[in-house]
Amino acid sequence: MLFHTPNFLIFMVLLLLPFYLWRKGRIGLLAVANIVFYGAGGLGMLLLFMAVTTATFVCIRLMRRRGSGWLFWAGVAVNVGNLAFFKYALMLLGTAEALLGFPLSVTPLVTKWLTAESGEILMITGISFYTFQLLSYLIDVRRGAIEPTSSLVRFWVYVALFPQLIAGPIMRGGELMPQIEDLPDKRVRWEDIRFGIQLIFIGLIKKVILADSLDNIVAPLFAESPSLTPEQAWIAAYLFGFQIYFDFSAYSDMAMGLGRMIGIRMVLNFDTPYLSASPSEFWKRWHISLSRWIRDYIYIGLGGNRKGALRTHVNLMAAMLISGLWHGAMWHFVAWGAVHGALLIVHKWTLKLNRFGLVERMRSRLWYRMLAIAAFFHIVAWTWVFFRAESIGAALDMTQKMVRADPAALFSHALMPLVAGLFALHIFEYAIRHHEALSARIWHFVPAPLRGAVYAALVFVVFYFMKGETYEFIYFQF
Fold first, then answer.
1. E-strand spans in 56-120?
2. Which pLDDT does position 64 carry in this prediction?
3. Rounded distance, CA 66 to CA 350, Å?
4. Which helix (H) or strand (E) holds 1?
């Protein structure tokens, strides 16, 4: 069920009316709403999700008993096995056959299991997100960071909370479960509802006006990647970078807005990442909840930076390879993760230059930061080629073209003003988000009739764009 459809609007109205009127029944209402929301994608997916959730809950409840530590690993196996089979089995079997040079007898059977009646390969919507959320709860309970809930219903609400179920943000037990426990006694303020509607509307603008419109340009460019000029290859990379940002941050904005409307605050998932001056800063501002998950449960779990420089670099690369594989069951996603791992390692090397006072002073200057942002934006745009291309070979082919680009021809390209405009919009979003109080005061200097006219115009434009084809969110496939 997509957020930007009439069905979801009806779903929300039917939920919110009793939710606001019947406080004591809120957790039960959300439990049922989660079933309806996820079940709209198919009964089989819902039953699988509920079975994995129940099995994990049982492991969590019993694993701290004496002699029951093995149940932690059983819970991990259930979740990792579910993800590995439904998302990676065909990829791994195909790779094994390519390496061995002959077909495996098990491949047709697995393919049959993972193929829908329509003949398409099954995609379990949101499986990567709910798997990481379940694993984080398991690990946090084992570490003693949180106390496990005794209620399967509350646990289901935590794991399957519909605003963030399909594409995050990935919430930790310590962040979300206390809010769920407090729902029956919490008063949802009008200010939260109003701010939630504002976030949803911002998300709709990003999705239906910006991301979906960019897809009409980006998709043909990547479809014709072998025949692109070097300048067109850069334009494709730039525009896809903005498309995936607007698409994914739109979902996160709407998820946070929906959460506010039911009295739940979700973690920030994006913070204008293209204004980053380094790889480490980028991963503090892009898909923040996943970056934290990878850092806390993989990078630190492997030893982090506690076992010497070489081990630190190995841990960084392992974490980013897993991040790439998490995004999709294709090797070009792994390559994308490897590229970002290499960038993080090189960035760590360059930090050693800070021991020279001149370098440290230079890096503290505004002009240096502006140059670093411009340079790193181009590096990130290039890495998106590995994410969007159909294969590693196609990504490398585009990379070769991008190296040969003529800067003068690139910056005079007909679509370059669009790229510049999108970057300016990104800066504007940063200014609004980081100076909300000042922005609100400035906005309220505008006469009320004019503000109303702007709101009405934006609503009209959003509904106009929603009349066309409805696009799924890009991260639904992950």
1. none
2. 82
3. 49
4. none
Where on the phi/psi map is residue 141: left (φ > 0), alpha (ψ -120 to 50), or beta? alpha
3-state secondary structure of 166: coil
DSSP sequence for 404-434: T--HHHHHTSTTHHHHHHHHHHHHHHHHHHH
Q: Which tokens is 344 given?
A: 């993080």
Identify the CA nearest to 12 among candidates 191, 200, 212, 169.
200
Q: CA–CA separation, 194 vs 202, rounded Å?
A: 12
For the chain of 478 residues, list the mean pLDDT of each consecutive stretch of 10. Answer: 77 91 93 92 89 96 87 95 90 86 86 73 84 95 93 96 87 94 91 90 91 93 92 96 94 93 93 95 95 92 83 91 88 93 93 84 89 96 94 94 94 95 95 84 82 82 72 67
Contact between 208 and 465 (Cβ < 8 Å): yes
286 touches 273 (CB < 8 A): yes
DSSP state letters, 126-164: THHHHHHHHHHHHHHHHHTSSPPPS-HHHHHHHHH-TTT
> How far are the Cα atoms of 15, 131, 137, 174, 466 from residue 144, in angstroms, in the given order?
35, 20, 10, 11, 47
Phi, psi of 74 (to 5 degrees): -65, -40
What is the rounded distance in angstroms from the CA atom of residue 335 to the CA atom of residue 342? 10
Contact by Cβ (8 Å): 149, 121: no
Give the Cα separation of 371 and 366 in Å (integer). 9
Q: C-alpha 216: how far from its chain's center?
A: 22
Decide if 49 contacts 76 (C-beta within 8 A).
no
Distances (CA, A) of 448 to 445, 453, 455: 8, 9, 11
Reference 245, options 210, 294, 295, 200; nearest CA is: 210
**Amino acid at site 405:** A
pLDDT computed for residue 107 by the predictor: 86
Enzyme catalytic residues? 327
